[in-house]
Structure formats: C-alpha cells, structure tokens
Amino acid sequence: EAQVTQNPRYLITVTGKKLTVTCSQNMNHEYMSWYRQDPGLGLRQIYYSMNVEVTDKGDVPEGYKVSRKEKRNFPLILESPSPNQTSLYFCASSSTQAGGRGYTFGSGTRLTVV
Amino acid sequence: AQSVTQPDIHITVSEGASLELRCNYSYGATPYLFWYVQSPGQGLQLLLKYFSGDTLVQGIKGFEAEFKRSQSSFNLRKPSVHWSDAAEYFCAVGAAAWGGKLIFGQGTTLQVKP
Is A48 in CB contact (< 8 Å) with chain B? Predict the structure, then answer.
C-alpha cells in the first residue's frame, strides 16, 4: 500500500531535550515536506526536500533541522525543543513529475513540549 | 506573493442541506488546485484536484468543485451534507514551477447540525 509513515503519533517531551520525528514513504517520491498545523493558521511548511541531499527552508524553519540521506526518509529534528513548538506535525510526499499531483500525507505527530 | 484564502473559518449547516466552501487564490498563472479533508484526530485526505480541462471536477464522498479563472476561485460543493462530513477542509494550490510544493489555506471547519 502506498503510504507515508510517521512516528511517533504522540510525543510529550521536556524543553531542551533533542528529539527526532521519522518519516518514510514507499512511493519513490522525489519531493518530501514537513508541515506544522496550528489552530487558525492552517498548515505551514517547515522544510522541504526536492531529492536526496537537497533540502531547503519553508516558511517556519526556525528551531528545526532535516536531512535527506535516502530518498524514502525525511526525518524532522528538534535540537532543543521549546513550548512554542507544541503542534501537530505532518510529513507529506509528492512526485515532482509534471508539477506534482498533490501530496500524500502521513497520519501526523502530535508533539507537546512542556 | 502566492497565497490561498478560505474566507470562512467556521461553517454550520443542517444535515441534508447543501454546502459550499469558498477558496480564492493569488497566483499569476493557472495553478493546480486541491481540496483536502481532515477528520478529527486524523491526517489529511485528498477530496479532489484540478489540473486542466473541465472546470467542474468530481471527487470522493459526493463532493465537487468548480474552477473559475476569472474569479481565481475553486469552491467546494456538496448537494446534501451528511453528519459524517463534519471535519476541517483545506484548499491548496500548486504549480508546475514549484516542483511538488503546495500552499494551503487556513482551513474551514464544518459543523453539521442534526
């Protein structure tokens, strides 16, 4: 089954404790992206990757890091989480052929930083 | 700058009534257009998409949307709403020049009254 898998689904952590949210897709998509969703703000892009070893900042990259060492994986790293990073996070992937055909989303990771 | 606007943050309709959710975009050329639905606690599911051709597109769950170039709009409609349609709906825009990137609106929360 074609899918984007995120882990964990829920995470509670303390301020300053480094964490990684994993994302993996099995569709051989070139494009992968991380979004955060906050009430009233919709989905805002954090980082994206056009292909292996090609990443770039989205609209709200502060406090986050990503890497793309393999085509299927695109982890999101919070080196020193803060309470304002409490949010619902989504990973998404897309083919870049012909401008893309829309995202396939992961199920989301609800992160709480206390 | 490119943007997507969903003017209605919250809409309440009675079960069986018709529904229209509005979406306006700002982009210089004809974009790719999408509607996603997010049920409570769930990820985002693609309802329908427009790339070219017939400006009235059919999607899943009985939804349709009409692209109106002159109004830069892509409104979502359903003739008769069911209680299970209660969810948050997101309009999104993509473009060939953007690779796989999508820009999302702020979302519209649909409440269905029995």
Answer: yes
Probe site for chain A from B52, B91, B104 (most A CB atoms < 10 A):
B104
Of the candidates B44, B94, B106, the beta carbon closest to that of A99 is on B94
Q: What is the pLDDT of residue A98?
A: 47
Farthest-apart Cα atoms in chain B, separation: 44
Predicted pLDDT of residue A97: 59
* Position A41 confidence tier, pLDDT thresholds 50, 70, 90: confident
Q: Does B90 sit within 8 Å of A43, measured CB to CB? A: yes
pLDDT of residue A96: 67
Classify the C-alpha dihedral B4-B9-B14-B15 as positive or negative. positive
Cβ B40 vs Cβ B104: under 8 Å: no
Helices (H) and strands (E) in chain A, counts: 0, 11
Six-digit token string for A86: 């409490």
Angle at the Cα of B100 from the Cα atoms of B51 and A107, rounded to 5 degrees: 100
